[in-house]
Amino acid sequence: MYLSRLELSDFRSYPSLAVELPPGVSLFLGLNGRGKTNLVEAVGYLATLASHRTGTDAPLVRAGCDSALVRAVVDHDGRPVQVEVLITPGKANRARVNRGPVSRPREILGLVRTVLFAPEDIALIRGDPGERRRFLDELLVLRSPRMAGVRADYDRVLRQRNALLKSAGALRRTGRGDLATLDVWDAHLARTGAELLGARLELVADLAPLVAQSYGRLAGPDATGPARVAYRSSVARDLDPDQSREHLTGVLAEELCRRRREEVERGVSLVGPHRDDLTATLGEQPARGYASHGESWSFALALRLGSYELLRSSIGPGGGPILLLDDVFAELDSSRREALARVVRQAEQVLVTAAVSADVPEQLAGARFEVGAGTVSRQP
Amino acid sequence: MVQDLIDELGRLPGIGPKSAQRIAFHVLTADPADVRRLAHLLVEVKEKVRFCVECGNVAQAERCRICLDTRRDPTVLCVVEEPKDIVAVERSREFRGRYHVLGGAISPIDGIGPDDLRVKELMVRLTDDVVTEIILATDPNLEGEATATYLARLVKPMGLRVTRLASGLPVGGDLEYADEITLGRAFEGRRVLDV
Ligand SMILES: Nc1ncnc2c1ncn2[C@@H]1O[C@H](COP(=O)(O)OP(=O)(O)OP(=O)(O)O)[C@@H](O)[C@H]1O
Ligand SMILES: [Mg+2]
Ligand SMILES: [Zn+2]
Fold this sequence. Notes:
The complex is a heterodimer of chains A (380) and B (195).
Chain A: E1 2-11, E2 14-20, E3 24-29, H1 36-48, E4 68-76, E5 79-87, E6 94-97, E7 100-101, E8 114-117, H2 123-126, H3 129-143, H4 147-166, H5 168-174, H6 176-219, E9 227-232, H7 245-258, H8 260-266, E10 277-282, E11 285-286, H9 293-315, E12 322-326, H10 334-344, E13 349-354, E14 367-372, E15 375-379
Parallel strand pairs in A: 3-13, 3-14, 8-12, 12-13
Antiparallel strand pairs in A: 1-2, 1-4, 4-5, 5-6, 6-7, 9-10, 10-11, 14-15
Helix pairs in contact in A: 3-6, 4-6, 6-7, 6-9
Chain B: H1 2-10, H2 17-29, H3 32-48, E1 50-51, E2 58-59, H4 65-68, E3 76-80, H5 83-92, E4 98-101, H6 119-126, E5 133-136, H7 142-155, E6 161-164, H8 180-188, E7 191-192
Parallel strand pairs in B: 3-4, 3-5, 5-6
Antiparallel strand pairs in B: 1-2, 6-7
């Protein structure tokens, strides 16, 4: 798929923008603070209904305005689909497909698929486990939109269960009645948790070889490697991705039972996929704390490129995602830059931003756009 | 005084400060007869409509219309969250038994546990051995499911047939929004809960 048109109204720094985009490589050049990241952020929002750099929607709306509109025409094998979302902070988003409203914005997930790499992604290697869980879950939803529901259910069970555990004092005082409701939440946590856990295990099994391959391509044969990722569950080691959901439910239920006292004492849920991590090792050492800046950057990039390959192969020709690369070249040495250019040149569409055009290798030929204050214009 | 009205309105469910303000100013400019009729109705509803002592449904007397109807099957009990769910189930015309209204669903976030619902009343109704099946028709969302699981485990030792509406209802939704046909099918295809 590729975006043939992007329109923004009061999104970030753009009062009103309409730009036609070609398939293949598009390069967006402009000085710092001109709105390059804002562009890729908008495209990413259509794909995930969230921003990669803010958890709340308020910053997405141009200062002084009530709502922001992101609209795009996405070409699926020659079939154009218009998708749009109206973002109004404090209210539910409203989405439309081909001008017709959809009942829930979540229904547009999957129409635009993107893989975005941004400077914030360094946190995938250096940040907390929460960053890596979010990475996995976003990828899960891109691969299978149904997972958005599982994710939401799990969060809800967790919130309900934590609320119950927090009133642990009362729980002990009143005795059986409340403990019986804890049993009920345990059952729900084990069941939804197993679905999420199972899906993540399958995902990592598919992703790991692609990440290693992408890192190898970027870094070349002489660099430290390989880059390995593995899922680390907080409940059991060496969980097999082929294990049935029933089995995983049992594993979680058992662990919940074993740690019940501790959970009641501490008043939080200690068992479940919300405590898991994705480990990253480079050669023999954990990437976190050992890898150099450029290596960490390349590893994070390899996670994104691996995701891209995964989505492309799982969805089939024509449905592959759009690649968004924000400020990726500046931090890489020249051989990695060239390797990256070779890899991304094959994408059906890739939007690349850079502040300094000299950072972008020449092989990455394509359309060039100049980003000014609130404007984007194609260069001849 | 206007501020008092806004504050009062803002305490109603589903009405935020902005809506409260809008309604208050609407009242100020509305026809006095319209306002009087609304005020009268509020008082009258509160005075005349009560909750059935048996099932918790809205009633005009001590017992509701359904509990008083001798043609209804006393051996099957349908457990719902709110009186409005009874309206939805009645519309489907699939169910000829009686009801029990819980008054909500278990939700620790909102501080609602079994003791805040009409669970004890349900247990009392089950002691006289007339009821042989209870249908758990709580909402098809997480809290509704959790409440159903809780109740199923609670009544299991009594040896009743405990069923749950068949799937097919819009997940995450409210029972009252399901259309008659879907709801009718869900009743017909109800399955025995195994907990
Ligand atoms: N809600 C908003 N309303 C108005 N302007 C905003 C809003 N949010 C961000 N901006 C402006 O957008 C600009 C940042 O744009 P963006 O992050 O896209 O820059 P950039 O071109 O990627 O720069 P760099 O090269 O430094 O990464 C800033 O000048 C910021 O003030
Ligand atoms: Mg930027
Ligand atoms: Zn009654």
